[in-house]
Target: MD-2-related lipid-recognition domain-containing protein
Amino acid sequence: MIKSMLIALFLPALVYGTPVRPCPNGAPVPLEVRVLGCSAEPCVVQIGGMVDMDLDFIAPRATNGMRASLDIFLGDFRVPYDLPAVQQNACNFLEAGSCPVAQGEFINYHLSTPASAPFAGITLDLQVQLSDDNGQPLVCYRSSATIIAA
Model:
């Protein structure tokens, strides 16, 4: 009985997508975004923990490679942050699809990265974008996160 209640309690966070908003640059939004443990904004992110996310989209055009970026915003102010160099090559983290990418191809991109922040107790916007060989966005979304201490 208790096991069934726990499954019923946590299953929605694992099955349903995380709400997202379009990026200001007008790029296409993903079909679905799933952040482990987050089914409503703002997601709660613990400093030192891991952010584990899947993003599904249909490629709007062909490209040989894809670059991933994660930007952090406090209001309109961009906080400098770069994904580790190996994670910037999105082709290394595809669960479905492959590079080169064909127009109309279904892509599932998986990102698992450590959460780091200089301070806790704030809510900010995270922007995830995958760009083509020419630096043009293929897909982009924003979502809110509340940063908590470890």
Remarks:
- Helices lie at 2-15, 85-88.
- The two ends are 32 Å apart (CA to CA).
- The longest strand covers residues 137-148.
